[in-house]
C-alpha cells in the first residue's frame, strides 16, 4: 500500500542558525521554536551541545532545553526536540537538565504508543553526527571517522539507556567541500550500518554541500538498500546550493524514503563547509509534497510567515521561493 505520509524534521533553529556570526538573542530563538511548534511539525532540532569555541551561536542550547522543559510549547501534534551531542560531555549537559526536570519530558517508550493527535509533554532526541569523508570529519569534529564512531557508541548507549531517541547524521554523503564529488556510497553504507548497530534509531543522510544530483542520490539509496538498510531507518537532509534539492527529494521519495529534513526560510549552511548555502527550505518541501498528494501535516501559510519573520529578524534574505510566492512578496 502506498504510504503518503511524510515526516518533516525542522532543523532551522540549530542547523539554520548555527552559522550566523552575530549572536542571536535567546528570546528570538525561543520565539522561533514556539512558532514552529504550532505548525504541525513533529520534530524540531533546537540546539547543539557542542564546544562554544567551535560553534559560538549554539552556546545557549542549555537555556533552550531548559525553557522547553519548563514551558512546553503548545502544539497540535506530539513534539520531539532534537539536540546534537558529539561526545559524552555534550550528553552530560543535556542529562543534567533532564535530571532537574525528570517529569517534564516523555520517554521514547511512552511516546511510541501515542496517536498523532495527542499533545502534551515533548520528547527529547539526541543527535550524533559522523561524516562520510576523513577530511570533513577532521574539520567538523577534530578527529577521524573511526574515533568519532567510538565516541558516538558511548553517546548512543547512554542516550538509549535513558530512554531517549537517537538520530545519527552522516554529513557530506553526496559531495565533500574538501574531497569533491567522489564520496563512496559503500563507505556511507558501512558507517550507517555501524551507527544503526550501535542503537541509532534513524540515520539522516546529509548532502551538506548540495552537490548531490538525481542519479547520485539514486545510486546512494540503491547501495544502502543493497546493504540491508531499511528506508524507514533513513532521513534525507538536502541542501539547495545547486538548486537540486527538490529533484533529489523526488528521487528519494520514489525510492521509499518518508522523512526529510528542512529549514524554515532556507536558513543555514555548515560552519565547516565553506560556501555551502542553506538547507532546503521547509516551505519548498511542504509545497512540493502537497503538490504530489503527500501528507506532511504542516501548515504551509504559518511556516511561510515564520520564514519571512525570522529571515528579517536576523537580517537575511528569505531563501524560500515558495515562502515568497505564498506571501506575495
Ligand atoms: P576538540 O577541541 O578536539 O575537543 O573538539 P576537546 O575534547 O579537546 O575539548 C576542547 C574544549 O572544548 C574543552 O574546553 C572542552 O571542555 C570543550 P577547554 O578546556 O578548552 O575550555 N568541549 C565541549 N564544550 C561543550 N560541549 C561539548 C564539548 N566537548 C568538548 N560537547 C569537539 C571536539 C567535538 C568538541 C568539537 O570539534 C565540536 O564541538 N565540534 C562540533 C562542530 C559542530 O557543531 N558542527 C556543526 C554540526 S554538523 C553539521 O552542521 C552538519 C549537519 O547539519 C548535516 C548537514 O547539514 O549536512 C549535521
Ligand atoms: Mg544542513
TrEMBL record:
Keyword Lyase part of the UniProt annotation: yes
Span of domain Pyruvate carboxyltransferase: 6-304
Keywords of this entry: Lyase, Metal-binding
Catalytic function, reaction form: (3S)-3-hydroxy-3-methylglutaryl-CoA = acetoacetate + acetyl-CoA
Gene Ontology biological process terms in this record: ketone body biosynthetic process; L-leucine catabolic process
Example of a GO MF term: hydroxymethylglutaryl-CoA lyase activity
EC number from the UniProt entry: 4.1.3.4
Similarity annotation: Belongs to the HMG-CoA lyase family.
Name of the featured protein: hydroxymethylglutaryl-CoA lyase
Organism lineage string: Eukaryota, Fungi, Dikarya, Ascomycota, Pezizomycotina
Shown segment, full-protein numbering: 57 to 385 of 402
